[in-house]
Design a protein that fits this description.
The complex is a heterodimer. Chain A is α+β, with helices and mostly antiparallel strands. Helices cover 37% and strands 25% of the residues of chain A. Chain A has helices spanning 5-15, 28-38, 66-76, 133-139, 160-166, 171-190, 230-235, 240-247, 266-278, 295-306, 326-338, 355-364, 375-388; strands at 2-3, 22-25, 43-47, 60-63, 80-81, 91-92, 96-100, 106-115, 120-126, 145-148, 193-203, 209-211, 214-218, 250-254, 259-263, 285-289, 313-320, 346-352, 369-371. The longest helix of chain A is centred in the middle third of the chain and has 20 residues, at 171-190. By secondary structure, chain B is α/β, with parallel strands linked by helices. In chain B, the strands form 2 sheets. Chain B has a 7-stranded mixed beta sheet with strand order 3-4-2-1-5-6-7, with helices on both faces. In chain B, helix 3 (75-87) packs parallel to helix 4 (102-112), helix 5 (155-167) packs across helix 9 and helix 7 packs parallel to helix 8 (260-269). The mean pLDDT of chain B is 92. The chains are: A alpha+beta, B alpha/beta. At the A-B interface, helix 4, helix 9 and strand 17 of A face helix 1, helix 4 and helix 5 of B.
């Protein structure tokens, strides 16, 4: 689960990590009042979305007056913000953070991630933090220094002073950065985070270290032991269709094409979409039916596709395995079609466990389907049907 | 011969009495005779599906001489189940459980270091050696004993490609799902090492996807050596939107690493044949095996 900046900052401030003075606003008027309350003559207006890449996509603006803050908030609120990490049509900005624009002398990049090679969390840091950090790091990984942590976050054997000294930090600023890092490591482990990133961690003229932007991803698999995130998960701006699918044991990602894809397993789902795109088609979604899904749950997933006016045709590509057998999917199609007025044509391809039984169901229930033997032919047909309608 | 699941495999099921445990143990028993017992704390001394149930893995091993374990427990107890198997010196532990917390897996990986256990998964469909047996939850309807080793990050796609190799008349020596999670046990590289030593295996198929480092590590291992057998790879997710989780947690990457393009490039320069799409995998490996065969004949 990706937390919005203000949600991460709530956690940071509770734990004592310095953050800029700021408020959350949901209307332009509120934004102006926030700026007046904060005072000063330099404000940052930051769109609160649950994806990164905001800085370079117009999601952060600056202003010197509360009136300017209001104008910037008017432009942002209610409008979609598209970044390389959002869905193609972006995410609607429902709230903005109004903050004191910190006078930055030095921008650090700081992150805690899991190193997949060693299965141990690492602390990453760089002196060249800022909005374009990821691009710079892709060009030259040497700007990034790392140190392996322990799997339980015990820092007693790790020389943080030495680590930051090597990055060129000295004096009071170094002390403040080490203090913040200790707090961040605790936050990371206490919340089952898989990523905690502060970019930039600003060093100010008076040698303070302030977390100007913060990003945190909490492990979805560990939410059961973090009731504190329940409310956040509810108010998080997850796509409504994706949320319904999730609740029905289906991993769904909404894309913006016109071919509804029904597939089981992440790999088969990805392979199906790859084929569609290579044949000139546009999938409306990625679907991975989990092995635990029942036919009633899968039918809910089919409902979502049938209800999407952009979808012109359904492509079913299923390989029956140990538990998700082909007839479970055929029954699901039957349920969904029985209650929907929109009988979209189905390009159907199913193999593996109970494929023949599934075919009998499809025929008996008189579902509007065309059957194909291999994936490529099915994908090509789905593309042709979508283009013709 | 096959790998990992062989003639002397003796399997216990951790979580045998649960819904998934019951369903999959029943189906595995129909496929092969390798299952010797189960574990469910508090239910030791009973029998389930005709197999003895024990309170701990240690007791099960002492009594049945089991050397492998299939783990079918809920996510919150998966890490302790894996660690229990490691501490009881189970040789091969296969964890099917999905959504095991990542921080729990860090503890499991630490327990694995220096242990005698080979862990497969979590979030794996398991291992199938057609005709010999299976430790897992996959369908066996289209599997057939043969010469292709398959190692994969995705379950349904493994069954799909296995079925294609059956139709092509090649069959499978062993299929292994390494699981869809970012932190997992056995990887592509170790599977390639095992398949190289297996005389039954004449060619290997890697089924990869965006994110993670498995494909890159396989490429690192293969480059600069003569593997001796053709290797073909399919990497899916070429057109998936970047930085979104596509079903498997392992598909999410940071710093734009793990694109299909980079993975294919690394594997290709290590001598791996890249299949264009999912329908192209069996023909690719079949052709390579034929070519290898002819090469040998003319030498």
């Amino acid at each position: 689960m990706y937390l919005a900046e203000y949600q991460v900052k709530e956690i940071l401030s509770e734990r004592g990590v310095p953050i800029p003075d700021g408020r959350l606003a949901r209307t332009p008027e509120e934004a102006e009042r926030c700026a007046q309350g904060i005072g000063g003559s330099n404000f940052a207006i930051k769109a609160q979305i649950t994806a990164g890449g905001r800085g370079l996509s117009g999601g952060v603006k600056f202003s010197t007056t509360p009136r300017g803050v209001r104008q910037a908030a008017t432009q942002m609120l209610g409008a979609p913000l598209v970044t390389p990490q959002t869905r193609p049509n972006g995410e609607i900005v429902e709230a903005v953070c109004i903050e004191v624009a910190v006078e930055i002398v030095h921008s650090l990049y700081l992150a805690i991630v899991i190193d997949q090679r060693t299965a141990v969390p690492s602390l990453l840091a760089s002196c060249e933090g800022g909005v374009d950090f990821e691009e710079k790091a892709q060009e030259n990984l040497d700007i990034l220094k790392s140190v392996a942590l322990t799997i339980d976050g015990d820092l007693s054997g790790i020389d943080l002073d030495g680590f930051f000294f090597e990055l060129g930090l000295t004096g009071e600023a170094a002390k403040r950065v080490v203090e913040a890092t200790r707090l961040l490591v605790d936050i990371y482990f206490d919340h089952d985070a898989t990523l905690l990133e502060i970019n930039p961690l600003a060093i100010t003229a008076d040698e303070r270290a302030i977390a100007v932007d913060a990003k945190m991803i909490v492990d979805g698999g560990a939410l059961y032991r973090h009731p504190e995130f329940e409310a956040m998960a509810r108010e998080s701006k997850m796509d409504e269709n994706e949320r319904i699918a999730q609740a029905n044991e289906i991993n769904l990602v909404r894309l913006d094409g016109n071919i509804g894809v029904i597939s089981n397993g992440a790999g088969l789902g990805l392979a199906t979409n790859d084929l569609l795109i290579e044949k000139g088609g546009k999938p409306a979604n990625f679907m991975d039916i989990r092995t635990t899904a029942t036919s009633f749950q899968i039918a809910k997933g089919v409902d979502l596709l049938l209800a999407d006016p952009k979808v012109k045709v359904l492509l079913v590509n299923v390989h029956g395995g140990g538990m998700t057998v082909c007839d479970t999917v055929a029954e699901a199609l039957n349920f969904a079609y029985a209650r929907s007025a929109r009988k979209l044509p189905i390009v159907y391809r199913a193999a593996g466990q109970n494929a023949e039984w599934a075919l009998t169901i499809m025929k008996d229930r008189k579902l509007p389907f065309e059957k194909f033997h291999n994936m490529s032919d099915a994908a090509a047909r789905a593309v042709a049907v979508a283009q013709a309608r | 011969m096959a790998i990992l699941v062989e003639g002397d495999t003796r399997v216990i099921v951790q979580g045998i009495t649960g819904r998934a445990g019951t369903f999959y143990t029943d189906s595995a028993l129909r496929y092969g005779p390798h299952y010797v017992g189960g574990v469910r704390p508090g239910k030791g001394g009973r029998a389930h599906l005709g197999l003895p149930v024990f309170n701990t893995v240690r007791e099960a091993v002492d009594d049945t001489n089991a050397n492998s374990s299939l783990i079918l427990v809920p996510p919150h107890s998966a890490a302790s189940a894996m660690i229990e198997a490691i501490e009881a010196e189970i040789g091969l532990a296969v964890c099917v459980t999905e959504r095991v917390p990542v921080h729990d897996m860090l503890r499991v990986k630490a327990a694995l270091k220096g242990s005698r256990t080979c862990l497969v998964g979590p979030n794996s469909q398991g291992i199938l050696s057609p005709g010999l047996g299976k430790i897992g939850v996959m369908s066996t309807s289209n599997a057939k004993p043969g010469c292709i080793g398959i190692v994969s990050r995705s379950a349904s796609l493994t069954s799909e490609i296995a079925a294609q190799t059956t139709v092509a008349g090649l069959g499978q020596s062993t299929t292994i799902g390494i699981g869809g999670d970012p932190i997992h046990g056995l990887g592509f590289r170790q599977c390639l090492e095992l398949f190289r030593k297996d005389p039954q295996t004449r060619g290997v198929i890697l089924i990869g996807e965006i994110g993670g480092l498995e494909e890159e590590e396989a490429a690192e291992f293969l480059s600069g050596q003569d593997y001796g057998k053709p290797v073909a790879a399919l990497i899916v997710g070429k057109h998936a939107p970047p930085q979104r989780r596509m079903g498997h947690a392992g598909t999410l990457s940071i710093f734009g690493a793990g694109s299909v393009k980079n993975k294919a490039k690394a594997l290709s320069s290590a001598g791996v044949l890249i299949a264009n799409n999912a329908d192209d995998v069996a023909p690719t490996i079949a052709e390579a095996i034929d070519a290898k065969h002819q090469q040998r004949d003319t030498m």
